[in-house]
Write a structure and sequence with these properties.
The chain is α+β, with helices and mostly antiparallel strands. About 55% of the residues lie in helices and about 20% in strands.
């Protein structure tokens, strides 16, 4: 059927084409004019119209005779267009996700480059101060002399850092560098009142002998983190788990949880000071009691603020 249709269309085109050409020639010789055009241009327009007529007849016959062509033209093409539009809409979230992934990749590349830089620093010299390391801690209050107080803190921190970085250098020279905007921000916050802790940290790794140390300050509210007699952490344990090895492990785990908890509450100290022989205390308590379960509590022995040391003791009670 398709071959017959194609042959028919070719034959029809062959018949109409000479007719259009002949019609154009006749119109040209007759000096016929449309819309006041020259006869030659009028003949050209007639020939073009004849060509369009051939195409229209061809398409019409295809629509009339071929069911497959009608399916493609009126069903498949709109369906494909709709599918294409839906696909474009579905691609939008994927494009957004791609942008996010590209940002993450760039951030990871920055981290990798920073890590490479750190490795180079470690390889080419002796690192005496690490990035993010706390160099100096001081207490500041809201007073009219805050600017002077910050200057004294800076000088004390500078002297301390010089002893670490260039201990052999006798000439005193400021080596700490921080942004003026950081100091302005501290002055603005402390002017509102209250007690504060300023922690000066290193912005980069520092090698022994470096001439400058880039730092940044962190301002923390000097508040009470734990109160005297407060139970910071506790844990229930079985008597069977309280042999010598397990007791030490339990205490270490409990103290680590205690340190993590006080960090979350705002403390900036890294170590916890303990009082008493906890192992002996626990073993003596077990000998005196025949119960199977005990509670071990870590109790604060004093009020401790943000930068104060944390002093604790362990209490054991039977359940």
């Amino acid at each position: 059927m398709a071959w017959i249709l194609i042959v028919f269309l070719v034959f029809l085109g062959g018949l109409i084409a000479p007719f259009g050409d002949l019609l154009g020639t006749k119109i040209g010789k007759a000096r016929f004019s449309i819309l006041k055009l020259r006869p030659k241009k009028t003949a050209t327009i007639i020939t073009i119209i004849t060509g369009g007529f051939i195409s229209s007849i061809s398409i019409g016959l295809l629509i009339l005779v071929s069911e497959e062509f009608r399916q493609r033209l009126f069903v498949d093409i709109p369906f494909l267009q709709k599918t294409l539009d839906e696909s474009k809409k579905a691609l939008l979230p994927l494009q957004e996700e791609r942008k996010k992934l590209e940002v993450k990749i760039k951030n990871k590349e920055k981290e990798l480059n920073k890590l490479k830089s750190d490795i180079k620093e470690f390889r080419r010299g002796n690192v005496v101060i690490k990035r993010g390391q706390t160099l100096f801690i001081a207490q500041v209050s809201s007073t009219p002399s805050i600017k002077s107080d910050l200057g004294k803190i800076y000088n004390s921190a500078d002297t301390y850092v010089q002893k670490i970085v260039i201990p052999s250098k006798k000439e005193i020279k400021n080596i700490l560098l921080w942004r003026p905007s950081d100091i302005a921000e501290i002055e603005e916050v402390t002017s509102k009142g209250g007690d504060w802790i300023i922690s000066i940290k290193s912005a980069t790794n520092v090698l022994r002998g470096d001439n400058f140390v880039f730092v940044y300050p962190e301002l923390l509210e000097n508040k009470i983190v734990v109160k005297r007699g407060e139970i910071i952490t506790s844990e229930i344990i079985d008597k069977k788990d309280l042999d010598y090895k397990n007791i030490n492990l339990k205490i270490k785990t409990l103290l680590r949880k205690t340190r993590d908890k006080i960090k979350l509450k705002g403390s900036i100290v890294n170590e916890i000071t303990t009082k008493g022989d906890f192992v002996k205390k626990i073993r003596d308590s077990i000998k005196l009691n025949e119960v199977n379960k005990y509670r071990i509590e870590v109790v604060s022995l004093k009020n401790s603020k943000t930068a104060d040391s944390i002093i604790v003791e362990l209490n054991i009670t039977k359940l």
